[in-house]
Amino acid sequence: MARADGRRQPPGSRLIWPLLAIPGTVWLALLFVAPLYVVVAILFGGTDPILREPVPVWNPLDWDFTQFTYVWDHIVGSQPFFRPALVRTVLYVTIATLLCLLIAYPVAYFTARFAGRWRGPLLAALIAPFWISYMMRMLAWVNLLQTDGLVNRTLSAGGLLDVHVNWLQGHATTVVLGLAYGYVPYMILPLYAGLDRAPTAMLEAARDLGASRWETFRRVTWPLSQTAVVVSLLVTALPMLGDYFTNDLLSGSPSTSMIGNLINNSVLTPGQTGQAGAFVLIILVVSVIPMVLYVRSTRSGADVMS
Amino acid sequence: MRSPVAWWRNPWRKPWVLGAVTVGYLLWSLLPVLVAVLFSFNAGRSRVTWQGFSMRWYYGDPLRSVWHDGSLHTALTHTLWLGVLATAITIPLGVAMALGLDRWRGRVPAGANLAVLMSFVLPEILIAVSLLFVATVLVSPLKLGTSGQVLGLVTFQLSYPVVIVRARLLTIGRDYEEAAIDLGASPFGAVRRVLLKMLLPAIFASAVLVFADVIDDFIIVRYLSGDSSTEPVSVKVYNTARAAPTPALNALTTLLLAASLVAVAVGFLAYRWFTRGEKGRSLDVFAGEA
Q1: Taking the domains of chain B in order of start, what are their residue ranges?
Q2: Tell me: domain B69-277, CATH 1.20.1070.10, correct?
Q3: Phi first, then psi: what are they for B184, rounded to 5°?
Q4: Cα–Cα distance between B76 and B235 in angstroms, integer?
Q5: Which CATH number does A82-130+176-298 carry?
Q6: CA of B81 vs chain A CAs: smallest distance (Å)
Q7: Which one, of A189, A204, A194, lies nearest residue A224 by Cα?
Q8: Is residue A218 less than 8 Å (CB to CB) from chain B?
Q9: Whole-prediction pTM value?
Q10: Average pLDDT by consecutive 10-residue portion of chain B (290 residues)?
């Protein structure tokens, strides 16, 4: 092992770092990387004809592509009954993520620059959703959105209007708003961290030199925050891709189902396990691509995490 | 008197619009939850009409209150138990891994770094489904139930302490540790008596985050739960939220929220204790790393 610096080190110090890192590394290899291969082996494996149980095939040379082609054909082929859910996933996740950005950016910006002595309490309130269980936040909306719930009562303005919208029966709007509500907190924090680091002097200089608010934002603030924006878009959009419970709780209808619902519906159905594997693989590929691009563009993975 | 136009054009006016958006967001974000908490104290079984204050859904109702309905309090205790177990395993494993990966160079640690990064950002459903396959299709030590849930949760959460501790290691630098070694400490002694002491705030912050995240977990614990006795609160809510639940469900989630807040308060106070005398805003560690 070559040492980057020439400083003296006592014997034994070379061993200590591998020793410390190995338990975690082995853990991830056995329980994170290897299981992903199991998914691949099941997808390209067969199905027991009698028990309808998946039979994994470990050797790539013996892979059977039947299940993969089946899923693929039903996405792009003439009977695309998986396609609507995939299109919906892209649409819902895109709209919900942009909605998140629209809400999160001003909030994060205000907290980072103008909150003053309210910064502490404000940050605590912004972090609060992390300590409230996601399911509780969704349950809260399920209660509010009942046909006789508070939302409809508010909309009917104390009996003046007669509003009986059944919000919880397959409304795409409800699902998208629910996703945005659920994931906004995850976006605010990385944005706040990024905006907090932006040099205030630069923004003030822009204003001093005559830029309007909008121009300052467009030409200074926004470019300065671009890394934080990309990170926050990633950490919001990627988990949304695998979400199926928001959809189940707020809609529960196949007319709004997303790829997560396809996985959830097939994963425990005998004979369809391979399909679930195919959808999981789609999510894996779709989430790895932006990751790789991002890591390439910053050249060090450490930046993503900060 | 200034005209509204002049007020709008004034470059140094107060950011009322941003402030209003922020306040609006906070109301939107927190009010629904407050309403849900409020209705856990409802005297009737409605979750939309207020019928007076009572503790019926906590312990009053002989059948359906959290205290008397076995499935509800099992869910609560199981959730907290999972939180404790998973945190207790994740933190030592992750802290050791962070220390090791920070200094160890080569192919293996580079791969481990990539694995940490991947498990940090990949959707949870990938880990959940792949571990479910391992538990159901293969013959392996991974079994559905509490042990499987803990293994899955640790796998998913391991990246948190690694990321947080490594960020802290960057700011600490290597000087203190080298000084200790120059003064005669063994490498292990330097790590144990110098580095670990300085890392305590980061370790506490990550423990609180992991605990809060574990008791909030849904996808992994649902797929890896064995039977109804290993179904935590989130799964219980998922299963009953659409099927005419009573306010007992609100009471259950309110209790979980209380447990979570206690954990945060303890963590925050401990954090303040360990960082006393240091400069900087203590909340930012929780904010920047979450």
Answers
A1: 69-277
A2: no
A3: 105, 5
A4: 11
A5: 1.10.3720.10
A6: 16
A7: A194
A8: no
A9: 0.86
A10: 71 78 91 90 82 83 82 89 94 93 87 88 90 86 89 94 89 84 84 85 87 90 87 89 82 90 84 70 46
